Amino acid sequence: MEFARQDAAFLLSKDVKLVIAACNTVSSVAMPALREVCGETPCLGVIDSGVKAAVASRARSILVTGTRTTVSSGAYADAIRKEDPGIQVQSVACPLLVPLAEEGITSGELVEKVLDLYFSPYRENPPDAVLLGCTHYPLFKDPIERYFSGKTAVIDSGNACADTVSKLLEEKNLYAAREQTGTQSYYATDYPAGFHILAERFLGRSIERISTATLTTEN
């Protein structure tokens, strides 16, 4: 949690207009601390948006996936039941998907075996929707859809959060002027070279430069 607070303080030092905790684990355990650091600067996590997208899908049974910490927190399951107590919610931690994504292994026999390891109990009676509660998991969206033979909707909490951010920027009149040309800056807290590889894999485009962030507890 302290690292999350330091990350938020670093972003605020760059005069950002909004902070997003684009990590389900952080969103499940550290949002109160992050909002305390951010003060009047809007601070969003991915869980609320993912839950709203899942409920809006009209699914009556939802399988929540995530890291062990996210799943054990019960954040997604509790929030879904709060929105609609009639939805049947099950949760499964899928820790092996993270190293596979980071190694660039997102399809093939190994991925199929790992999916079977986690999802085989649900295959005979598949859920209406699988909620991807980890930012690594969208890389496996197509294999998961195939695993359930196209009978299950796959919901990406990251995409849902992006939609929420877009609406919030519009509501608060925080959008940049259309004639402005945006720039992107990337910072990593450890081993920028390794992050460079992962970032390009997830973003699907090249990144010119990644800087090392120096963290403090001051904002």
Structural write-up:
By secondary structure, the chain is of the alpha/beta class. Helices cover 48% and strands 15% of the residues. It has helices at residues 2-12, 24-29, 31-38, 47-56, 68-73, 75-83, 97-102, 109-123, 141-147, 157-171, 192-203; strands at residues 19-21, 43-45, 61-66, 88-93, 129-133, 153-156, 186-188, 210-212. Helix 11 (192-203) links the parallel strand 7 and strand 8 (210-212). The protein starts with a helix and ends in a 7-residue tail after the last strand.
Characteristics of this structure?
alpha/beta, two-stranded parallel sheet, 48% helix, globular
Layout: helices, strands, pairs:
Blueprint: H1 2-12, E1 19-21, H2 24-29, H3 31-38, E2 43-45, H4 47-56, E3 61-66, H5 68-73, H6 75-83, E4 88-93, H7 97-102, H8 109-123, E5 129-133, H9 141-147, E6 153-156, H10 157-171, E7 186-188, H11 192-203, E8 210-212
Sum up the overall morphology in one term. Answer: globular
Q: Give the helix tally.
A: 11
What share of the residues does DSSP label as strand, in percent?
A: 15-25%
Order of helices and strands: HEHHEHEHHEHHEHEHEHE
Mean pLDDT over the residues:
90
Structural class: alpha/beta
Number of strands: 8
Order of strands in the sheet with most strands:
4-3-5-6
Write down the oligomeric state.
Answer: single chain
Rg computed from alpha carbons, rounded to a whole number of angstroms: 18 Å
Short description:
By secondary structure, the protein is an alpha/beta fold. The chain is globular, with a radius of gyration of 18 Å. It has eleven helices and eight strands.
